Amino acid sequence: MTPEMTAGMIKVRPPAELGHLAQDGVTLDCHFAFRDYGHPAPLHWGRLRVLNRVALDADAAFRLAHESAVEIVTIALDGMVAVLVDGLGDSLLKPGDCHVVSAGAGVAQATWKTGGAPASFLHLWLMPEEEGGEPTIGLRRGGDRMGQAHALLASGFPADDPEEADQGRSGDPLPLKARARVLRVALAAGEQAAIPTYADRCVYALVVAGHVDIAGQEADAGCGVAITGCETIVVRARDPSTLVICDSD
């Protein structure tokens, strides 16, 4: 946790409180300290170190170099984005797809780029339990094994994926080296979802679209909501809404 976010609390962070970076056709909305977005930005929430919404113009690219000891989760929102990871191959993401780069001992370069049309995606960076190891990638196509309202996209808990031999099929969560879960929740207006967790966990929710009441707080599209001290998080949709939720220790 950070000094700005203490145990037993719920804090809504509207878009005006976030960091906004733009350069060379790349726009970032940053929930935690990242590049030129520093103090007073929070450094992390649990194991969630980065949560950025990334928008790319047509024929633009977002590049990282020499990253290690991090799990980089990409969730495609709009358009098509190609992910190129040095030594590990290329993946083309469509809206709803999820991709994980487990950097391990180090990835020399990773690139997210568009073709002739713009695209947007989310980046969640998670701090792993242990550093080192060979870097790997994983891809989960848009699918839903938890029902229409819930999709478990990635998890660091083996019990969440009992059929490890079939990893990567539509609906299976991608493995993480962090004790964390990344979920997508989509609700129609008037619907609600109850997300189980533990009081000592750090939950961070991003309202991707719509308007919700989450844990008793109102939040619009673009808001981040940091939660701890809860065992169940109830989300009620005022409008058709989509959230991405990270639950970590």
TrEMBL record:
Q: Which PANTHER family match?
A: QUERCETIN 2,3-DIOXYGENASE
Q: By what name is this protein known?
A: Pirin-related protein
Q: Where is the Quercetin 2,3-dioxygenase C-terminal cupin domain?
A: 172-246
A single Pfam family it belongs to is Pirin_C_2
In terms of SUPFAM superfamilies, this protein maps to: RmlC-like cupins
What InterPro entries does UniProt report for this protein, alphabetically?
Pirin, Quercetinase_C, RmlC-like_jellyroll, RmlC_Cupin_sf
Transmembrane residue ranges: none
